[in-house]
């Protein structure tokens, strides 16, 4: 670790004169950010004073780059606008994170260059202290030319030349989670769209993928998968209209066929509920785990979703590679790569559609 590169030139000034602020952007603005501008203009015309830290009081002052990023970062993202002012110049920075995660991403810096480094340092420290983040990451160009990360708000290091492959369809999270797990265990293996779609064809129940089919695909590729499910029978509820199911009867039958084939070739299966602590123990033993979660907790959409748990921090916080990136909301690989999630939050995620569906994990 280093004290952090300082690639941006800063003219001399007195840092003691700089005032920093962190302004939470309410969820009510999410999806209706265009209304913030209207509300601010309406307030100005009618001469009504707004609370000093109300987002509407500063929205119209934002440079276009930060305003555009704020408008884009909608959905379930929890957003904070960071500002710095010395009475002459101002600077702005947007921070956001997914609900129930322990990471804050800083992006869309605009304003005075000489206030940049102080504002980034303030925002990182605020996120760790007040947003309860364990990790703060920056998009390239915010703190340095490359993406950076810090765990204390002071010492920074490059996020690294990571190889995190994102799913290229809305329904191939399972195959991509498997490929990312295999890459973690065998760096010479790289994910690609051909393998992503090939595994999906092998493991799909039209259109989702369930653990037995994915485990069979893993075994075909030389892995030794171990399945953990909380009950016998179909893992994903094969009801009419269930997420990821085109035909309920077909999805039920295919799940039974996959389970029978997995038992036939000797893939170990444990039928028992599990917790985030159980997942952390597997990660601590050097395993990668594909875990079925409910997207609603982290993305705001109820849907079965596969992620890869690749390790854990000293306090047991899980490190997760999520194959899904909400690009329309401004997310990038920085948001989904080595995402820290506390065990209490992960426990909220691993109960998709229970009791109709089951918990599921594949350990490699």
UniProtKB/TrEMBL annotation:
It comes from the Bacteria. Pfam families: DUF3335. This is Peptidase C39 like family. It comes from Bifidobacterium apri.
């Amino acid at each position: 670790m280093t004290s952090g590169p300082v690639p941006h030139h800063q003219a001399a000034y007195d840092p003691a004169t700089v005032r920093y602020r962190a302004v939470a952007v309410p969820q009510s603005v999410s999806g209706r950010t265009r209304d913030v501008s209207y509300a601010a203009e309406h307030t100005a015309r009618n001469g009504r004073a707004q609370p000093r830290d109300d987002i509407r009081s500063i929205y119209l002052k934002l440079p276009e780059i930060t305003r555009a990023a704020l408008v884009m970062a909608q959905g379930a993202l929890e957003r904070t606008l960071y500002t710095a002012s010395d009475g002459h110049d101002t600077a702005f920075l947007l921070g956001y994170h997914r609900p129930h995660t322990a990471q804050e991403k800083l992006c869309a810096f605009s304003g005075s260059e000489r206030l940049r480094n102080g504002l980034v340092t303030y925002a990182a420290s605020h996120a760790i202290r007040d947003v309860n983040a364990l990790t703060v990451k920056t998009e390239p160009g915010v703190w340095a030319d490359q993406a950076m990360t810090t765990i204390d708000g002071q010492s920074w290091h490059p996020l690294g030349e990571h190889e995190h492959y994102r799913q290229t369809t809305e329904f191939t999270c399972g195959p991509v989670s498997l490929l990312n797990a295999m890459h973690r265990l065998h760096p010479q293996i790289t994910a690609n769209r051909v393998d992503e779609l090939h595994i999906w064809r092998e493991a799909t129940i039209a259109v989702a993928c369930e653990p037995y089919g994915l485990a069979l695909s893993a075994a075909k590729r030389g892995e030794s998968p171990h399945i953990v499910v909380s009950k016998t029978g179909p893992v994903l509820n094969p009801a009419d209209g269930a997420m990821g199911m085109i035909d309920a009867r077909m999805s039920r039958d295919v799940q039974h066929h996959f389970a029978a084939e997995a038992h036939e070739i000797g893939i170990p299966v444990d039928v028992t509920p599990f917790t985030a602590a159980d997942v952390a123990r597997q990660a601590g033993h050097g395993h990668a785990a594909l875990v079925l979660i409910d997207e609603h907790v982290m993305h705001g959409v109820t849907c079965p979703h596969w992620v890869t748990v690749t390790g854990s921090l000293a306090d047991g916080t899980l490190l997760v590679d999520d194959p899904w990136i909400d690009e329309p909301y401004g997310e990038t690989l920085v948001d989904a790569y080595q995402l820290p999630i506390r065990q209490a939050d992960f426990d909220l995620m691993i109960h998709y559609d229970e009791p109709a569906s089951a918990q599921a994990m594949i350990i490699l």
